[in-house]
Amino acid sequence: MSNQNGISLDFEKRFEEQQDIKGRLFRTLHVMYRGHYLKLFVSFIFFLLKHSPVWILPIVTANLINFASDPSTYDVRYLWMNIIVLTIVIIQNLPSQILHISFMSKAIRHVEAGLRSTLIRKLQHLSISFHSELRSGKLQAKVLRDVEMIEIMSKQTMMGVLPAIMNVIVAIAVTANRSWTVTSFFLVAIPISILIVYFFRGKLTKRNREFRQQVEEMSGQVAETVEMIPVTRAHGLEKVEINKVDSLLHNVRGKGYRLDITEAFFGASNWVAFQLFQVLCLLFTVYLAYQGKIPIGDVVLYQTYFTQILMSISGVINIYPQLAKGYESVHSISEILFAKETQEYQGKTKLKKLDGKVDFDRVYFKYRDSEKHVLTDFQLDVKPGETIAFVGESGAGKSTILNLVTGFYRPSNGRILIDEVPMDDLSMRSFRKKIAVVPQNTILFSGSIRDNITYGLAEVTEEEVQQAVKMANLQDIIDELPDGLETKIGEHGDRMSGGQRQRIAIARAFIRKPQMVILDEATSALDNVSEKLIQDAMHQLIKGKTTFIVAHRLSTIRDADRIVVMKNGQCVEMGTYDELVKKQGEFYQIKMASEAV
Length: 597
What we know:
single chain, alpha/beta, Rossmann fold, six-stranded mixed beta sheet, four-stranded antiparallel beta sheet, about 10% strand, transmembrane, P-loop_NTPase, ABC-type oligopeptide transporter activity
């Protein structure tokens, strides 16, 4: 595990070093394989050895035919020498092939694992706003499908393109040594193949990009559809979701079909052209032999080498679509690898102790690609240990304030200070270890209840776990489960009710012993009885700690030190519960509306 971490860290450091260099495609490939060129070179040497029978066999065959057609010109030892050389070359293929694949696989598999690990690490470091703009399904496609396409491209390059190049070089070199007339004929095939590739390259690249983008779109929609199944089922909207996915699948089918037809025409065109050239080569060399300008055996040699040239060029052309997919995947993952939208704050200052003094100094905030400010000239000074509650209609900016305190977003203008230290200077990782966040939408993973409560904590005593369970009012649930704390809760905690999931999240907050607490409608999924019990426990949790609360149930915030009433991104009222009720302003209207419901 530590070795894998070292791999991913090394990859991440390489990509960071290359941030400002142009040429993203080749830059990405260079960064990925840097440090593995020696393995690839050794693999290539063993490839030359293992592939040598393909080049030597035509020469030996021609020599034997020439020997048989004119035995008086050659000695018998000439025959045995050719047979011995061919036998040795064939036998060495076994160890050479194993070593060739071994060195190549070590490099490619290392890059594959390191690349996926680096993508995951990079996703952890990118800003929340970056993630909010990309569907999780699209990100999964990049990590899984695109890396697989790059692996295939790497193998095709090592096992398809390089052998093809060497076949052409060896064939032309041997032919040139025997006949420049035949060599000149051979060289005509190469520009023809280049013209075919050039003609189809743009169209293939376009088709591959369209298909890849459509697959990513479909992947994102499928992930969303699966998550929405309970809501879809509850409202009888199955056909709506099915039609939505079917529409995307129809688009994928269309893009895939056009890609397949382009690839088919691409392959067929080069095959027909090359077969015609092969026939011409045969006629040309037979004519030269008939004229006595070359030995009869050389007809087989030239025909074999010309076939190798054509097959090599044809092979490269046939795998070009796979290479194009790989190159497109490199472009796809580079969108993440070279993304500069890292987390909002990059400060280094670590707070040994978090007192909890928070100052909002004329804070403005608007989301990217939006001109409307969510917060406008927001000012608030929070004392250490003070409990601040935010109320207001949806879109007033309540949750945005919590996200700003957590460091998920950064003010468009103004600044936020924690213990009189600007958040720009703070180390977010050390700061967040001292806070506990209970979001409105409970986030759990598919482990046990214990795993979810102790998430991210290396050493936790059983006493601390039991205390957190008790304070979050989870004991009655644990007692009813056959496996207790070790009960698996399913993906996203789907085996638990909404209230049970929320209490697990609250227990997670308790056990972290935070110095600051952020509660975003943390009791929204609880019934009245559980809410009362949780409120009692929360009083213990937040005692002496700076606490920010967003709640739609006003009973939850009755004891808050101050209640901030938000409207259109601004604070319109502030005071204690009783003060605001007596004032009969905005808060009073919210209270009346909630009681009417």
